[in-house]
Endolytic murein transglycosylase (Tistrella mobilis), 340 residues
Amino acid sequence: MRFLKHLIIALVSLATLVVAGAGALLWWGSVWLETPGPLTEARTVLLPRGTGVAGITRELADAGAIDQPAVFRAAVVLLDVQTRLKAGEYRVEPGQSPSDIIDMLVEGRVVLHRLTLPEGITLRAAWEAVAGDDLLSGDMPPMEGFAEGALLPETYTYTRGDDRGALIRRMKAAMDKALDEAWAARRPDLPLSTPEEMLILASIVERETGIPDERPLVAGVFVNRLKRGMRLQSDPTVIYGLSEGTGRIDRGITRSDLGNAHDWNTYEIDGLPKTPIALPGRAALMAVAQPAETDALYFVADGTGGHVFARTLAEHNANVAKWRRIERERRRAAKAAAGD
């Protein structure tokens, strides 16, 4: 009887120690989860699709993001989130705690990359930018299925491995939405019959000036000319036709270029060219929708990066003469500098 009593006491004591030990272990684990992690500088961790808890733990440990892999794995199981950890590319910050890392994986706070399409580039240039981004995956859709001006130039966020075709479709949807909004906000007296015509004119405005305050003025000049039946006489339209859609040539425009008849040469054709000549941004679209009230019919470069506007041909010719003098002075200065 006495032996049985001692045995019971020993078993109760052992159980107490086990419970106390387990409690202490759980307490230590909870403290460790909130302790700043070992990283002293940010590290990127890539977790492919299908990676289980063991693989995720190993990747984090190999990156130096956690120093107790077994405890991390046990915590994931005890928290019952092992099926909620999301694949992707993650940036683990210096000192980021294991608890915050788990939250980050559950919430899917993956690294966001950015791809910017500058305003005024062509469809071909946009295609090359998306195709050349090594962080994207998948084949490009056929460019023939998209018209010039079809994509909205702005900054897009994406995650590593996103599909190129899906990103192109996002860019197309963004332009469709921006064009619909601009068309809905247009002045009722515009000499434009369709959203497509607005897109064409906005692309010309985009290529004519990169100065935000000038876009409505440039749009106003072109609207005035269209209303009067005057040809637009826009140099960027000539360049687009000569460049076969790249929007760039490696020389200046010649007088013979202005007389070279093609579907985009607005010195030779009446009205708008047959397609846009670039990807216009939101500001250019709204500039065409709400052009400045102006009497100007002409503009030319002023030598400072902007333009000077004129109401009459005589004023414009005087401004052109000033610009030609500036060009000659710059050529002389460049030649003198080269001689030195």
